[in-house]
Amino acid sequence: MCDWCPCPPRDGEVAKAQRAAGDHAPTIFSKILARTVPATVLYEDEKCMAFRDVAPQAPVHFLVIPKQPIPRVSRVGPEDTEVSLLGHLLVVASRTARAEGLHDGYRVVINDGKHGAQSVYHLHLHVLGGRQMGWPPG
């Protein structure tokens, strides 16, 4: 437990985020893009890929990643907005969620840095659905 809150001991994704080395490559996602690590791909185009999460936290849990390696959402630069990469990732998340049957809603999560529980330093959107999400999330 933390000194100041009733949270459980650090384990799982939080522990991975604390141990993550940061902005180094290659990541598991670059290996998935290179097809050296298998993934269940739901969508792919010239800018991004969507695939199922290997450790789902909801009945439907997939990731949307850019093919361009951006380590963190806080490291997005002007060039990423000029080509509308971020908007494209959200549109792909929405279309893929619809294709996965998430008609009653879903959650989109972007973790940033160790305090945001980011354990893979390649920008990625988690799309979670198929059940009622709780609030607050953290």
Unreliable runs: 1-10
C-alpha geometry: globular
Distance between the termini: 15 Å
User: CATH architecture, please?
Assistant: 2-Layer Sandwich
Q: List the secondary-structure elements in sequence, H or E.
A: HHEEEHHEE
CATH superfamily: HIT-like
Structure write-up:
There is one protein chain. The protein is built from four helices and five strands. It is α+β, with helices and mostly antiparallel strands. It has one domain: HIT-like (HIT family, subunit A), CATH 3.30.428. It has helices at 12-19, 28-33, 78-82, 85-99; strands spanning 41-44, 48-52, 60-66, 106-109, 125-129. The protein starts with 11 loop residues before the first helix and ends in a 9-residue tail after the last strand. Strands 1-2-3-5-4 form a five-stranded antiparallel β-sheet, covered by helices on one side. A hairpin with a 3-residue loop joins strand 1 and strand 2.
Features:
HIT family, subunit A; 18% strand; 138 residues; disordered N terminus; HIT-like_sf
Task: Annotate the secondary structure layout.
Elements: H1 12-19, H2 28-33, E1 41-44, E2 48-52, E3 60-66, H3 78-82, H4 85-99, E4 106-109, E5 125-129
In short:
The protein has one domain (12-129): HIT family, subunit A (2-Layer Sandwich), CATH 3.30.428. Helix content is 25%, strand content 18%. It contains four helices and five strands, in the order H-H-E-E-E-H-H-E-E.
